[in-house]
Description:
- By secondary structure, the chain is an all-alpha fold.
- It is about 80% helix and about 0% strand.
- It has helices spanning about 1-10, 15-40, 45-70, 80-115, 120-125, 130-155, 160-185, 185-190, 200-210, 220.
- It is globular and about 60 Å long.
- The model has no long low-confidence stretch (mean pLDDT about 90).
Amino acid sequence: AIYNFGNAVYSAVGNTKKPLYYLGFSGVLNIILNLFFVIVCRMDVAGVALASIISQYVSAVLILQALLRSKDIYAGKLRMDRELTRDILKLGMPSGLQNVIFQFANSFVQMGVNSFDAIMVAGNSAASNADALVYDVMAAFYTACGSFMGQNYGAGKKKRVRNSYLISLAYSFGIGLLLGVSLVVFGRPFLSLFTRDAAVMDAGMYRLTIMGFSYCISAFMDCTI
């Protein structure tokens, strides 16, 4: 939560590099600590969990320290502002409820998938690893969209608000289509990272083929949100 807050602050002022550096450093640290705790200390699952916890704390400390040391307009004493807190909750609570609805709907999708045999479930699980890969890349443009729209809305430049949305939508649609088609074409090599079973791969390709041409369509919903 602390890292995401700092990332949002820096994204709002157009500085997306600093949070990326901190996250990249923490990610590398996570890998190193995973190897150390599991191989050297033989801690198994507990070692993986500990490595994740430490790396997340490091990313939070780094970005919080940067915020406290900053001399920019958003710098100053960190404190709760009643009026701004109310405004954030008015925006954040409906957004949170919206995500709950998505996950609630996804639970029914998962129930449907689980009604098939083990091969189809395994293939779906292997192919679903592509979702985070594609959606996270597309989400980068949604973040940029939110930052540009917020800045231009505050400046009263309504035309640039619309243009920011349209440009971000075009980028997210394009990258979603490119990555989706690539997964359809190179689906089997991608699935081989998770399984060697030919039947599971065939089942995974069903999902990749459908989703490969659907990722880009989600941009019209997600970028608008």
